[in-house]
Amino acid sequence: MFAALFGLLGVLAAHEIALSLHVLARAGGAIGLMRDFVLPAIGGVVGVLVSPALLRLFERLVTAVEDSIAGLAPAEALSGAIGLVVGLIVSFFVRDIFQGFNYLPHYGPLLSFVLYALITLFFSYLGVRVGLRQRLSSWTRATLHGGDAPAKLLDTSVIIDGRILEIVQSGFMDGRLLVPKFVLKELQSIADSVDTIKRSRGRRGLEILNHLREVSGNLEIYDHDAPERDVDGKLVTVARQLHAQILTNDYNLNRVARLQGITVLNINELANALKPVVLPGEDMSVAIVKDGKEQNQGIGYLEDGTMIVVENGRSLKGEQIGVQVTSVLQTAAGRMIFAKLKKQ
To answer: Is residue 191 within 8 Å of residue 202, measured between CB atoms?
Structure first.
């Protein structure tokens, strides 16, 4: 189709060029045959030859537009399309303003065409921008929230943590999952860090996002930014605009967001709620892996990552010992268990 289309355009363009040259336009005989047949044939061949390159350019353009639309939420795509249609309608109704330029000598029609094209582009672009911005208003809020369930904004910490993937797979998470573009940018910068630990954590976060997109049909990349400089401030602002919840395990973000009336879903709080209750006086076995902050303290961990501070356990580092729980400290940042050596 491209070859036929541009071949035909080549034929027409060559014929028009030949007619525009006065020498060829009035000639007859062999020159007339060249004007009417040879030059259009050459133009057609040129059009067919350049069509593959133009087709590749066309495919790249379509792919870029497709990727841009695929990154939009359904409400964004719909509101942007409506804004575009409204912009085109407005530009159509103002076209008569430029009809007077057609009567200007020499370049009047060209000037009228250029001004009308600029106005059409202006109103079309303005319509798309206004439509996308109005997506944040009440008329699309229900779609954004996926019905009655509000949208969830994912921060960097909860993505790197990875437990959100299992929570979504279990079916306990409803509503749309939104990953702001500034969070994705921060995650990419961590993945490109020169520090080995940070780089591995960042790459793990990107892998989690890929898996999350596969298992959840509600994961979207949110393109709009916020004026704040820090990521936490941007998250709070966007959550307020969208009336969304923030999904995190960052203790500081948890406190700041709740102070401003934002609903926060803390993964650590969920994990703490699901942990088996450990009561003072219970016995357990733990391996001492490092020294504690205080004198003679040893540190061990349960399988779920809970820290156990063992009194007088420093000298037993590297050993599996029996301990008795003395107290449990539970916070939004996690749970700590304090224990002493079990009496033999």
So the answer is: yes
- Residue span of the structural domain in which 203 resides: 151-273
Closest CA to 224 of 71, 64, 339: 71
What percent of the chain has a predicted confidence (pLDDT) above 90?
A: 5
Contact of 80 with 128, CB cutoff 8 Å: yes
Final residue of a structural domain among 70, 90, 119:
70
- Residues ≥6 apart with Cβ < 8 Å to 322: 283, 284, 285, 341, 342
Residue 296 has a CB neighbour count (10 Å cut-off) of 12
CA distance 260 to 331: 20
Average pLDDT over residues 261-283: 80
**Across residues 131-146, what is the average pLDDT?**
52
Helix H segments across the chain? 2-20, 22-25, 29-33, 39-70, 74-93, 108-134, 138-144, 156-161, 163-170, 181-191, 196-215, 231-242, 251-259, 267-274
Minimum mean pLDDT range among 21-25, 142-146, 245-249, 310-314:
142-146
The number of angstroms, rounded, from the C-alpha of 48 to the middle of its chain's C-alpha atoms is 40
* pLDDT tens digits along 172-197: 887 788 888 888 899 889 988 888 88
Instruction: Kindly state the average pLDDT of the residues 30-47.
Output: 80
Are residues 243 and 158 part of one domain?
A: yes
| Residues 190 and 268 placed together within one structural domain of the fold | yes
Q: Are residues 64 and 79 in the same domain?
A: no
The Cα 330–Cα 279 span in angstroms is 12
Selected residue with higher pLDDT from 81 and 134: 81
| 100 φ, ψ (degrees, to nearest 5) | -65, -25
User: How many structural domains does the chain have?
Assistant: 4
Q: Are strands 283-291 and 219-222 parallel, antiparallel or unpaired?
A: unpaired
